[in-house]
Amino acid sequence: MNRIQIDPSRTLGQISRHIFGGFAEHLGRCIYGGIYEPGSPLADDDGLRRDVLDALRRLSMPIMRYPGGNFVSGYRWLDGVGPRDERPTRVDLAWGALEPNTFGTNELIDFCRKIGTEPYLAVNCGDGDMREARDWVEYCNGTSETALVKLRRQHGYEAPHQVKYWGIGNEVDGHWQIGFKTAQEYARAATEFAKIMKWADPTIKIVASAVSLWEGDLVERAQLLLEQAGNKIDYMALHWYVGNAADDYDAYMATSELVEERLSSYEGLIRALRLDNQLQRPIHIAVDEWNVWYRTFRMDEPPLDQLEERYNLEDALVNAMQLNAFIRHARSVKMANIAQIVNVIAPIFTRPDGLFLQTIFFPFELYSRTCGDTALDVFWEGDTFSGGAYAGVRVLDVAATLRADANEIVVYVVNRGRMDAVETTLTLAEGAFAGPVDLHVVNGPDVKAENSFDAPDVVGTRGTTLQAEGRSLTVAFEPHSVNALVFRVG
Length: 490
Ligand code: AHR
What we know:
- By secondary structure, the protein is of the alpha/beta class.
- It folds into two domains: 3-8 and 376-488, Immunoglobulin-like, CATH 2.60.40.1180; 14-372, Glycosidases (TIM Barrel).
- 25% of the residues lie in helices and 28% in strands.
- The chain is built from ten helices and 25 strands.
- The strands form six sheets. Strands 3-4-7-8-9-10-11-12 form an eight-stranded parallel barrel, surrounded by six helices.
- α6 packs parallel to α8 (255-276).
- The longest helix has 22 residues, at 255-276.
- The structure holds alpha-L-arabinofuranose (AHR).
- The site of alpha-L-arabinofuranose has 9 residues, from loops.
């Protein structure tokens, strides 16, 4: 018997909308040919693809990380501002490409404003220095009559951009990174970068690069960072990519356990270090790169391919589980950025004459559109399976949210069962269903189903309404489906 119990009084914490963030890197066709394609009949006056903007609006991303990624560790932001025909073309060492710099800071800000998202800029802590980083803060946010503020005005932007979120470097723990740093080197660099960036604008929030490798020195890195920069940084950034390289469905479906392990360990680590260092201020987790990525994964030698991963339904299930985990860890995960947004390991896939929406678009859209503001501590039990290193994993993966002002509850259920529907009784610990329940389902014919230009609707979202009365409701969740039950409690 599968059952889910919802108690609206058992809250876990406020959900930050920033868990529905995105990430755009100068890489492959993410910017050029994705977001930005001047001269295309689909582009607006600023060269931004209108169809891409519309698709992105459906995802309601509140924050956008930019410009990398590995790219940022060799980036000079000054190359990307000012008259376009004077901007230099440079070699991008991270991805072995030529970077024309025709899209830069101000184009990104225009793009963000058009889709109602807040920019989150990462500074170069690879081959860049802290002067360059603080100058970027001043160029974006300054209001005094300085040369950099005048330069921004000269570039057509009288008002400051008010960029609040700033990351220091990218994946500095990875040997593939331009300017890879040891734990000690990064703790020192982050402390000094954060110090003078905050001198340029004391209101900014700093995201430190913490873990992407997940082996070896993650405890030491956190310890040194919090000991040295604990009173300057606001977020610790974690990155991960998951996948099904072994084509083992059960192991892939147990990815939820890996994500739980990582989040709960890191949460505990931050708590312990805050205690040890007597830090009163909160330090949050920003999972500022997460997604499925394994088919086009090569980090060894440039030139690398374009990372144009094509997603299937099982990837959409795994992404929904990651969103469930962010909700369940709402107390500590205050930002998460799906990597990336267009073409490059992305939910949106373009060609010159249009786009299609990949399978992973749909859970993201559903969660972003329906998620409440408070995470609930949901209890569920039922059938289990074994996959990879994990046994006793519940077939259903569940999270729930509350929107207190509307008395609205949303229960997210991923049914990982490949063949069978899972009949489940949902019970309210208090109150009763006040009216019908909207059930939104992301599904497709089988777990390997994909969308494409020729068949764009194989996987998508359907909606139905269920009648509910009293305190319990029984639902049969379809095999390999992502579900959102939306209802009010009276
Ligand atoms: O998102 C693609 C790449 O993955 C990013 O550039 C890097 O940060 C990560 O390794």
